[in-house]
Specification:
Layout lengths: L1 E2 L11 H13 L10 H21 L7 E4 L2 H12 L5 E5 L4 H12 L3 E5 L6 H11 L4 E7 L11 H11 L2 E5 L11 H4 L3 E4 L12 E5 L36 H17 L1 H20 L4 E3 L13 E5 L4 H10 L2 E2 L1 E3 L4 H7 L6 E4 L7 H23 L1
Parallel strand pairs: 1-11, 3-4, 3-5, 5-6, 6-7
Antiparallel strand pairs: 2-8, 7-8, 9-10, 10-13, 12-13
Length: 386
């Protein structure tokens, strides 16, 4: 199968990641931080090593601020529900995933004011001004996706971070589509909370998430189940234990570490260039395919992540993706859990077909996809003539 749905999860994991997960289950299957025996200590040390790698990759102030969660969605919920109280305000972008919009709707019902800053496509300065206009006297935090999972457009995170710092507002970034694909420096970009989906750009197993919390979270979403201060009735104040309740996903975390090593060995800039080159090749091929509609400009370096959204006129996104699946090509059709973005594009009724390559994809994969796409479009046109 030609797998081009890497914005959902990377379809091929490096062998180093697979071996790391397997060896953890075979040789390191002990509960970290829950005992003084050698196996438990080794497991704790292994997790600490992964925290160090993650902190270094994303410019965190220290490894203790790296918290492992079940998913990027969990990380976002931990932050939103942990820092916002009745009467507070939050500003989110008009391109957010429902992992942001749904918890924000719940918070709105409990008395948190939610404002939306319109993203101005192709104009970063106008987008920043949109965020500035949306900020109110009660705004406690701003949350912005680093890049849209529908259009691929990269947001001006550093500029928004500088605005938040100037206003004394917390800045939360959803890096589901960017972590491991483009460089992220939390200190340089002014990011207070970074939410990461390691199973995407870090090539880790699914069921893993990362939250890097530079600032305090007042209300932990889950409490108890920590291996420290067991006699104390309240949740520990120390990080990362404050936000890591219950037994952590040891094989998944070791897989994250191996994924970080893989990304570092390839080089983020090299990964980004390779993936964007394939995206541009695919974009140009779709552009030349009769009956196709593209929803963003050609992916430019530094402005887009490797995501291309399109439709074939007269065929629903879900039908197109199903036809491609029959040709052993995996893409994503629908709303991609991001209705805000589809409202902006005018595709809210049926969504789009999304193509998202990763480092393991080749020009040959792209050619197979484009050939199948042209055949689908040609067959549809001929069927309408009869």
């Amino acid at each position: 199968m030609v797998y081009l749905d890497n914005a959902a999860t990377t379809g091929k994991k490096p062998m180093s990641v697979i071996k790391a997960v397997n060896s953890t289950l075979l040789e390191l299957s002990a509960n970290p931080g829950r005992g003084g025996h050698k196996s438990s200590v080794r497991a704790s040390e292994a997790i600490y090593g992964v925290r160090q790698k993650v902190a270094k990759l994303f410019g965190a102030s220290g490894e203790d601020r790296v918290v492992f969660t079940p998913s990027c969605t969990a990380s976002i919920n931990i932050v939103l529900k942990g820092i916002l109280d009745r009467g507070d305000g939050i500003v989110i972008s008009s391109l957010e995933h429902n992992s942001v919009t749904r918890p924000c709707e719940t918070l709105r019902k409990s008395g948190v004011e939610v404002s939306v800053a319109e993203v101005i496509f192709g104009d970063n300065d106008a987008t920043v001004r949109s965020f500035e206009r949306a900020i109110k006297s009660n705004t406690k935090a701003v949350l912005c996706t680093h890049a849209s999972n529908v259009t691929g457009e990269i947001m001006p995170i550093a500029k928004i971070g500088a605005l938040c710092k100037q206003k004394g507002i917390l800045f939360i970034v959803d890096a589901a589509q960017t972590a491991g694909v483009i460089p992220i420096d939390m200190q340089g970009m002014g990011i207070d909370f970074l939410c990461i989906a390691p199973h995407k750009g870090l090539y880790a197993p699914m069921g893993t998430g990362i939250l890097i919390a530079e600032k305090e979270i007042t209300h932990p979403l889950i409490e108890g189940g920590t291996g420290v201060n067991s006699a104390v009735a309240v949740q520990p104040l120390e990080y990362p234990e404050r936000l890591e309740s219950g037994t952590v996903n040891l094989p998944g975390i070791i897989g994250i570490g191996a994924g970080v090593d893989f990304v570092n060995s390839k080089g983020i800039e090299n990964i980004y260039k390779a993936e964007l080159d394939i995206s541009r090749y695919i974009y140009n091929g779709i552009l030349k395919t009769s009956g196709c509609v593209l929803y963003t400009p050609i992916p430019e370096y530094g402005k887009f992540v490797p995501v291309v959204s399109f439709n074939i006129r007269g065929i629903s996104a879900s039908d197109t993706s199903e036809l491609l699946d029959k040709a052993d090509i995996a893409v994503r059709g629908g709303l991609h859990c991001a209705p805000f973005a589809h409202k902006r594009l005018g595709t809210i009724e049926g969504g789009t077909v999304r193509v998202s390559p990763a480092i393991f994809n080749t020009k040959r994969d792209a050619d197979i996809f484009l050939f199948a796409l042209k055949r689908i479009s040609f067959n549809y046109k001929n069927s309408k003539k009869h």
